[in-house]
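Protein Entry — a single chain follows
Next Lines — sequence and tokenised fold
***
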Amino acid sequence: MKCRSVACLWSRAPPSHRVTATAALTNPPTLYTGGSDGSIIWWSISSSESNSEVKPIAMLCGHSAPIADLAVCDPTTVSGNGVTADCSDCVETDPFVNCSALISACTDGVLCVWSRSSGHCRRRRKLSPWVGSPSILCTLPSEPRYVCVGCSYIESHSLDTVDGAESLSDTDAQNRKPSRCTVVVVDTYTLTIVHTVFHGNLSIGHLKFMGVVQLEEQESLLMADSYGRLQLVPVSDNVEKGEDVSESSKSSIRNWLNDGEIAVSVITRGNLVALFSKNRGVFWLLNRGEAIGEISFVDNSLCSDFSFKEAMLLYASASATEGDKDDIVSETFVLLDDSGSAVLFDMSYIDGEFTYKKHGEIVTASDKRAEKSSFCFVQLRQSLLRVESSCCGTEQPFQWRPHITVWSLSLGNADEKELQLQCKMLGEGSYFDDWISSSCVDLKGTIDNDLGSSVSDSEQCVSSSMVISENMYVPYAVVHGFFSGEIEISKFDFLQGLDSPASSPRSDTDPLVSKQHLLGHTGPVLCLAAHRMLGAANGRVPAHVLISGSMDCTIRIWDLESGSVVMIMHHHVAPVRQIILAPARTEHPWSDCFLSVGDDSCVALSSLETLRVERMFPGHPNYPEKVVWDGTRGYIACLFRSLSRKSDPIDVLYIWDIKTGARERVLRGAASHSMFDHFCAGISEKSYSGSILNGNTSVSSLLFPAEEKKKQFYLKNYERTSSLSTAQPSASQEKTREENPSASSFAQSIRYPPIKCACPFPGISTLIFDLSSLAVYCQAHEDSDMHKMLGESSGKPTAQQRTSNNQSPVQRTIDNPAEISPMDKEIGEYLIRFSLSYLHLWGIDSELDETLTVQLKLKRPESFIVASGLQGDKGSLTLAFPGLNASLELWKSSSEFSALRSVMMVSLAECMISLSHSTATASSTLAAFYTRNLAKKYPDVKPPLLQLLVTFWQERSEQVCMAARSIFHHTASFAIPLPLCSDFASEHAKLVRSLSGISMHEPNSSEEERPTNGLESEHIHEAQRLSQAEESELLSWLESFEMQDWISCVGGTSQDAMAAHIIVAAALSIWYPSLVKPGLAMLVVHKLLNLVMAMSEKYSSTAAELLSEGMETTWKLLIGSDIPRIVSDIFFQIECVSSSAKAQQDVLSSPIKQTLVEVLLPSLAMADVIGFLSIIESQIWSTASDSPVHVVSLRTLIRIIRASPRNLVLHLEKVINFVLQTMDPGNTVMRKTCLQTSMATLKEVVRVFPMVIMNDSSTRLAIGDAITEINGASIRIYDMQSMTKIRVLDASGPPGLPNLLRGASESAVTTAISALSFSPNGEGLVAFSENGLMIRWWSLGSVWWEKLSRSLTPVQCTKLIFMHPWDGFSSNSSRTSVISSITSHDEEVPLQETSKNISHAERLKQLVQHLDLSYRLVWANERKVVLTRHNVELGTCLL
């Protein structure tokens, strides 16, 4: 799973935003405004009775073309945390009141779905070319998950008119040729087309209005053109062609608009349709096919001096449209004029009588400074939002500023019609007024000198921006091009003294220069690019150059170090819009060339070596908006829109041969897009970074979708260096890789740039930090094998010395993998410090800030305006506005953002501790801040989402796993999903989710109160039964794999969502049983088992660990009878995986197999030892002799012996027999496969159990009964060559011994053999019994062992010796000497009576629990044996 955090660097001037579309979400109150540049602003509205506050929260970056329309939708019917929205105060008649997401469409055909809860783009997709350009979005009221997208083939410039109004097409052109239109139904969960409603030529003109109407209990789409002509299309699968209302129903619908009237607005609700022109409005009922009334704006005192522009209907409790009888229609609507004022009307149609009445008026004064402005209104609950976009000043014609005002609507009930509506302004908001003050004020309330001096620069609008990232450490500088023609280079302060981007070190005379200004352009700077020369230096061109294109039709080449102009090029006769660098693996001399694209529709290829134009590619009928360069094949693809046919423009693709300059192919229509996508896929495949954009350019990162593929990653321009020689690695490189495989694996483990730079819009630069790539350096540092590769004969070079060489650090690392180890620590510390500096929330805790700057050596980014952000699907971004409040709003509104940022910060702190132990204190303080202290300081911060945290429990990096688990445990009691909460925790969880500021210590008490006894807890759970409704709710939550919003934050699938739900439920059942419903464990255990058996690389290991951890306390009573079957299934999975690995000539070392063998199998075996031993014995005959199952069984036995040896005390005979069977000399295949592991198992048994012994020559093995009946104890001796039993020694004791132990029957169970030892010559055996303190000695000669026939008749001991009790010996029922049994009659009676009252099973359990495995018999000489316990001598015995 990906965990990426975004730091946004804002320019001094706020970005321009001309509103083209609006939408509002009711819960919580949120406004979205879409701009002409493709940006969307997220506004938060907090309202009260007397005041409303409008605050810009973030900019949503997912489009590179003007926003055509916005609409609300509901892609998820079940939210990720199970919270149900509280809509008690919402308007009941609004069908979209419960919508939780926004869908946006731009004129380029890209659709995005934005989640309100998480704030990120959950899905981004481009429509197929045949659909056309989206213009209108309509959400289906009956199913808000589905949205109708109306697309038409119109000019792309229609939304870019100066006054913001849409220009009308030529009347004659419309009449000559019908317009094409496509209406599709899109599923907002997947953004896939599920149904095509209409595709073809409209019977009316160009599509201008579209709405959903209810006609005959069926939803239909009503489409209208600018002349008021209507076309009705049913939204159903069985209707292929829509009904033309204007043609087929002329008799019933006659006078909707007069000839020549232009329809300004069309609004629909139910079966009511209202058409408005400049002079009047006509209301229709579709099912009747007749007009019910009309409002005139000409001779009407209510609308005097009213210049009508737009109309909208309001949702209110007074609205009523009875579709059955159609005798009552009552609606409230708003009429907007050109000045931004509004008039509210109330219309009604009752019993055939149409009436209307003025309900209120909103009069506003336009901004006098604004030369151009546009207005629109949006309803939000009982308020009306007025959105104004204004452009001030002729010097900055592109600077549009939005302004939001909130007006109260006191809409009365049906019986309060006589009340006059009182409209009053409750509040207003704009992010331009306090842009500098909210972003540049420090903790002391004063403005920094550097920032204060640049406030004047805020009046300059940024026309282009770019981040230069030329090395493997961090970005080098941010470059801004202004409309004034000035270029500003802002270098990162963190690089000072550590790194230099040039081939030569920076001059010592000016070491602290952080900003550089380049002057020369006379028009706005429209495009930028930075390039490092890779060819032979000729002295004319510096090593590092900056290329800029401007509105003044010139291209300037700058020396990036000195700031001087190298060359001015004048080969374009129109503004230069794009500069494209050579891609990876481009051969010399093309690798030092660049493409320039101008408004003159010409593409030019210029060389930085010769400083002249080498190729010209003219003849494009229009400006090529998208140009890509395939350097490997030597072709250029230019995609543009041909406007030769005005009513039906078509996309055209030109393909040029870069070497000959000839045009190879021309493709039109859908084929052009297919070929262009093929070009992009080829470039992305050959680029190690996976990006279509080549090098450092100002081309928007949103122009091409980011398709991430699993591939090896090399950085930026250095990837071209490897292609200069050959595409294939040299023989020396192959030899180095073979000698250093671990180093190669380190390079291959970096799949994504640690810090990726992107500029979605001019003036907005983003740094995307990837946690997995950052943690690789820490993981490599901890790898001892890599450090052994380092030869430290010479001193380590510094970072600046490495970078000052002509060869890049990455390329030298690739050429010589042995150098990875000395670099990983320095690089890791440097990357992590830089990341923490730009991701930390500065200004919240002053003590922590000082600790980080002093001890951790972080640098606060004071030269940049830094804000937080969140990455979405396919390169989309959610960027918070400057200021601490906007960043905190992400923490308070998005539990997904809270989880991702917390995991990122805590993981980096853990990595810092691993790399530098001296920073342990500061790093631990930082981790504690993001784990718990931030939530204590701001109680309304959303707790991290538990489902998202568990997705990182199986990461390769140990630091990431530890961070995710730590955050999970700290926030679990506050973030338990509501469907899982028990009655005890439900109220607390609701209060936390409602942001009520509850004490953060309350759940700790509940955690302490949970039962500590696992069996007691299980009995309580079984006693409490779930109701059918509760069980259904839990199962619905566990199986809600489709409707998860959070999974797109980490790039997962619906299967990942279901697995995460299962893991969260299982973890809570184990660790917090009192906080979840008692029946949860029973419902989740079998799903957890299925997840283990799925052998998923992402989750099966985690599921196996949870099963193992909760086996004794939670799962054993639920699956006890199924444990043998589960063990058999695991063996089957191991067999299947091993067979697959053999077929692929691969080594079987997957993490899931490792977890099954090392974690889950031992826990299952300890839970049911008898069942496990039966299964492994049956596997000998049911599986192949060379199967890895036998080795796995032996290794599992070793782990059981080490973890819980007492579980095997009663089954030592079975264990030994199984091990000896795997060493059977009659089965040579199995013996060869298992011999080494079998001997290791026997040695482990001998080491742990003193009643099992092997002679020094490993030819004989003796095993004694640890616990058995008094007269049934024996010792078996096995021959290690034939693996058979050869002798049985009688250890039942001398005759009459049971009578000495008064009260004990001959069948009583007790401890028998406590220790065994072979004599040094291997011919004798000594046995010690703690019960009775007896030592038995069998003195047997070699003849007895070798020449006598093998007999299993028990052999009595040669000598029996009673030992005296040692100091500290305690006599009790389980440890009784013969002397104490004879002399202490009175004390023994109660113990004997107690032993009679317990069952046989309890007696065995007590004996196993008190069994002492620390006795050892050590031979001092041939006739003297020493008895020890815990290596302390207890006594000696002469034989």
